[in-house]
Amino acid sequence: QVQLQESGGGLVQAGGSLRLSCAASGRTLSTYTMGWFRQAPGKEREFVALIRNGGRTSYADSVKGRFTISRDNGKNTAYLQMNSLKPDDTAVYSCAAGLGGSFNIWGQGTQVTISS
Q: What CA–CA distance (Å, rounded) separates 51 from 33?
């Protein structure tokens, strides 16, 4: 059974940086699209970024130029480098994996809190 485990969340001041990791176990995910999503209190989950198996990336407009998604297939891990963080980036960040344009494997999430 495939499992995704996020790490790297925490509390930082506005303007700071964090790097989230998403480690997969149980199966190699090199052919999967990996994505990051977030959910703030009282809001619906929203897309943040994705990286396809060929390396092509997509980002939500709200994080373009500040966040960078990457992957290391040798380590079966995806990353989200978050710079210039804002209080509005506060949320639980979850990673996901899937094939064919949909995500069907999800991690439990990691809390990111940005103080002003």
A: 6
| Percent of the chain residues past pLDDT 70, beyond the cut | 100
Q: Which two structure tokens, joined as six digits, stand for 110? A: 């990691």
The arithmetic mean of pLDDT across residues 21-47, rounded, is: 96
* Strand blocks (E) in 1-115: 3-7, 10-13, 18-25, 33-39, 46-51, 57-59, 67-72, 77-82, 91-98, 105-106, 110-115
Q: What pLDDT is recorded for position 100?
A: 81
Q: How many Cβ atoms sit within 10 Å of the Cβ of residue 65?
A: 9
